[in-house]
Amino acid sequence: LERSAVELAKDWRTDKVLRRLEALLITANKDNILVVSGSGEVIRPDEDIAAIGSGGMYALAAARALMKNTNLSAREIVSEAMRIASSICIYTNGNITIEEVK
To answer: Domain residues of the chain, as ranges?
Structure first.
């Protein structure tokens, strides 16, 4: 995952079209979570939780609370944190699709 994220970040930095993107991408496997930025940075979050977008900080706060205080699965934490964020942030859509690789 780390090698792939670094290679993607290099491509993002060197490509004329891609380097203009102001985007963030969360990548994860069972061991790591990384955030790849449009400026070519690879960021490892301080905790095992990452959130991006307009409602990202709301979702992050909700996910942290759910992780510490419940026995929900990762998928359930994501779903509930996004539902909470969408109820607080007017820019966060409540129609959520979660893709999970097993």
So the answer is: 2-43, 47-97
pLDDT of res. 23? 87
The backbone torsions φ and ψ at residue 81, rounded to the nearest 5 degrees and listed phi first, read: -65, -40
Structure tokens at 88: 């607080």
pTM for this one? 0.82
First to last CA, the chain: 15
Q: Give dist(CA 102, CA 81) in Å, integer.
A: 21
Dihedral, 7, 50, 46, 67 alpha carbons, nearest 10 = -140
Distance CA 40, CA 56 (A): 20
Give 40-52 pLDDT, tens digit per residue. 899 999 988 999 9
What distance in Å separates the CA atoms of residue 31 and residue 101, rounded to the nearest whole number? 14
Instruction: Please give the structure tokens belonging to residue 53.
Output: 């977008």
3-state helix, strand, coil in the chain (%, to 5): 45, 10, 45
* CB distance 92 to 55 below 8 Å: yes
